[in-house]
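Hello K.,

You asked for the raw outputs rather than the summary table, so here they are, unedited. I folded two proteins back to back in the same session to keep the settings identical. This is the first:
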Amino acid sequence: MALPDAATTTGDTTPPDLGTAARHAAFLLPAERRSVSEARHRVLQQLRAWGILAEGCDTAALVVSELFANAVIHTSSRTIAFNLGATPEQLLIQVVDDGSGPSTPRSQRADTDAEFGRGLLLVQSMTERWGVGPVEDGAGRIVWATVRLN
């Protein structure tokens, strides 16, 4: 069950529309654990090229790491796409898998001794909003998050 938090969006939701002035970048990587660091590297490289300040870059790298790792671990996807959209005020991060996971991603409370189970709590605490929804054509799932940049 999702944690009660007004900033958290769960269920079938669509990511916010950043408008036509937003900058966009898209990447596709193999659904392998070693791809998580490559995803993080590509995000940092792209955001720095766009002139995003260090704090926004660091937050985005952490969020992408968590969402990408969840897609690798919890789905049988062969590839995972991630998309970035940025305006001067907001960054939109989207991770797209094939939707084959056993359930919808949701925040949970992990036992203090558990090694896993805190990723979406981190995402929730570091982002303005996050959500999960189907890909427009129905062939997959998007887990997205927004980060305030100013």
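The second followed immediately with the same parameters:
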Amino acid sequence: MTVHRIEEAWRAGEVPYRDGLYRPDDTGVELLFDGPGAYHPEAGQPLRWRVGGPLDVTRVLAEHGTGEVEVNDESPLPDGSGWLSVGDLGLGHTACLARLRPDRTLRWVVCSTLSNPFVRVRCEGRKAIVTNDWRNLLTLDLDALPFP
């Protein structure tokens, strides 16, 4: 049986400590956050991300390690297909966003080292609105995410 390190880390309450989106099969892509982050003086601004290239998850884990996730909020997906969970890694500037299956197993998890902790998530129709501790908003179209 193959042991997947991302799935193992998630079960232990941890995520890779590098900007990216990680899947339980040990694949990942780089995520680049645009807009205000940890050092932005104006609260309430939009956050955006861009999808970069593939990540070598084994290398990320070896070079950056993992951080312990503190879940701050969760919201069921409107179609019943699972949950969105948000939190932080306890360092003041890092954030975590996870999509979970109905049984709460991991579909994917995002780590962002510059977006500040995500403290709230809510679903409105097919959109998810994620809020960080500066009240900056990340709005996601659940039908158009570049990953399932």
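The mean pLDDT is 88.

Happy to rerun anything if the numbers look odd on your end.

Regards,
P.
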